[in-house]
């Protein structure tokens, strides 16, 4: 492992929305190929990469719930299936890029993927395979950010790298305020106080309890995944 690399085992969280790129729905083939190439590069450097992917590109449950069309648990079950679709897509893209990959689902989909087995996931990582954790934690009322934090703690990942469409966390909303300043570092407590717009509060709490730092960064800049993995200052670092 090269000395320029900071982390040995990382948990990469890719939001569903960031897979959309400029498209209005589903998956932008260029973005998913970019992710696959970058993950392939860091994996070849010997870094163990586990991935949790969201589902917002396929299904936005909250809109259906607030309109009264769906109850929360049903919407969340559909949302979890959306993460499975993204996981299979990402697996195929990674294997195209020459990386051995396993998908493990939080509930059984035995014909499609392995069930989540912690020790087995760790074994795959040790063998240099990328492991994608699909279906969140398998329960409604949770998010894939929380799944990322939980799996990171379970597999002893040293960091959660949260890939988004934003450069990081700003002092105010950059969509509303052109002068918003990117914060290079904030504490868990300040991240939680910002509310769930940037990162889920349950996820932040789990990371804090387990002293796992989180880096929020922009996926759309080529090279950013490698930078985040090598510990270059990029995006926002959340820790103590
Ligand atoms: N979800 C869930 N339990 C989990 C993880 C996810 O019920 O453990 C559902 C929830 O409805 C969530 C959706 O799956 O909204 C997709 O995940 P998320 O919204 O976190 O994806 P992202 O915003 O990253 O695209």
UniProtKB/TrEMBL annotation:
<protein>
    <recommendedName>
        <fullName>UMP kinase</fullName>
    </recommendedName>
</protein>
<comment type="similarity">
    <text>Belongs to the UMP kinase family.</text>
</comment>
<feature type="domain" description="Aspartate/glutamate/uridylate kinase">
    <location>
        <begin position="8"/>
        <end position="218"/>
    </location>
</feature>
């Amino acid at each position: 492992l090269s000395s320029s690399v900071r982390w040995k085992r990382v948990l990469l969280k890719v939001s569903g929305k960031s897979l959309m790129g400029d498209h209005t729905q589903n998956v932008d083939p260029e973005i998913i190929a970019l992710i696959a190439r970058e993950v392939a590069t860091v994996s070849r450097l010997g870094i163990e990469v586990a991935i949790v992917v969201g589902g917002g590109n396929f299904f936005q449950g909250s809109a259906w719930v607030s309109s009264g069309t769906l109850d929360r648990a049903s919407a969340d079950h559909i949302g979890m299936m959306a993460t499975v679709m993204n996981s299979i897509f990402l697996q195929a893209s990674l294997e195209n890029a020459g990386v051995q990959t396993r998908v493990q689902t939080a509930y059984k989909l035995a014909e499609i993927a392995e069930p989540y087995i912690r020790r087995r996931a760790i074994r795959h990582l040790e063998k240099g395979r990328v492991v994608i954790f699909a279906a969140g934690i398998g329960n409604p009322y949770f998010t894939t950010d929380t799944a990322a934090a939980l799996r990171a703690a379970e597999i002893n990942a040293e960091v959660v790298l949260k890939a988004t469409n934003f450069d990081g966390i700003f002092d105010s909303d950059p969509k509303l305020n052109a002068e918003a300043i990117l914060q290079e570092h904030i504490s868990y407590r300040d991240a939680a106080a910002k509310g769930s717009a940037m990162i889920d509060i349950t996820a932040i709490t789990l990371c804090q309890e387990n002293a796992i730092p989180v880096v929020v960064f922009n996926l759309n800049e080529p090279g950013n995944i490698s930078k985040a993995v090598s510990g270059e200052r990029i995006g926002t670092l959340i820790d103590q």
